[in-house]
């Protein structure tokens, strides 16, 4: 009997060491080293998940609890927390953020989906030579000429979706627009009416990717499995939800693969005459066929599928969520909406497409976008990372395997960098002088910075400008009076909720 007690006690002590002491002790050492420059927000096992969940429950804002710590003490450079059983260092000081972005090879990105064959070979998760090759290849599709050549298509998509969508679900509405733009940019016009699971492809794919991401956050058992077994966790005591998701992933990948293989056969027999009109798929397939001919095959069909998933995830959700948040603030501040409407009519006119010459003149819309990205950036931090090897980050020593992230929204919330930083004021970006104080180049970096900054940031800004301009011209955007509580929560990204928070009233309806 005594041996049983000893075994139980040993097990409890082992769990206590593994779950509590292992992450806590190094966090306490850093706290003692940095003093008031570090905030300890440690919760056994729950860690960051508890911080976020409590913040949504109590403050109706995913980030408010962390933001309040920074506002309370502007000298804080790091939040000390944990992700499950490991230390998690959330860097908020701009010099530390700068060092991490510039020295990106010292960190390993964590796959946000943790599903095999979903994005690992794409640009976001690739590293080393593969990342360099992909960045160089895709960079040719994001030149100014290529971006502006998509203007007619983007105008058409916004007009079509605005007409067809009932606009009762903000996230679905904006995702339909941005998703269709990505699909057209990748596959071309042959995908008109493209559906998966009986829904518009863009909505179906957004749902699948969001469900994959949120699954471990909403289920501790699945989170624990992923912690222990990573990609293999899907085959170990799988829940019905996991089985359903794997089936849906397989089905949508099959559809994408068939479209890619069809295009490969087409381009084998008929080369494109106008290279400037190449969509992303044509760019990839042309290189794929060239490598095949030269017998130096680096690209395979699986990589092209992963690249589509990556570009879709990066180009749909982020742009859609930013657009949705901009629309919310237009409803929240009717005077600003009227000022922006006036700008659109003066520059673009009461009807007609938005053209290249209009984009740089829409300065108030640009100011709105920048203010939303300063305060409510959907991608408020990049993908979580682990430390590749023991790393000296300025004055802090981080150990191999620790979790870390750059909270790059943090510096923009502080009065030492922006006047009245907690106040939403889009007009600050209309000033001729320096908007940002004490700027080291890493204070306002909504699309990250350094060698791995967002390749599609100019397309994203262009697309958001066009969405806002066309919608504010066509609709009076209002808060839904039936919605009593607005929350800034998380689906895949930081977003305004609930989805029925806005009403779109035709301006010519009466």
UniProtKB/TrEMBL annotation:
GO MF entries: heme binding; iron ion binding; monooxygenase activity; oxidoreductase activity, acting on paired donors, with incorporation or reduction of molecular oxygen
TM spans (from-to): 6-28
A Pfam family per the record: p450
This protein's record includes keyword Transmembrane: yes
Keyword field: Heme, Iron, Membrane, Metal-binding, Monooxygenase, Oxidoreductase, Transmembrane, Transmembrane helix
Family designation: Belongs to the cytochrome P450 family.
Record protein name field: Cytochrome P450
Upper taxonomic lineage: Eukaryota, Sar, Alveolata, Ciliophora, Intramacronucleata
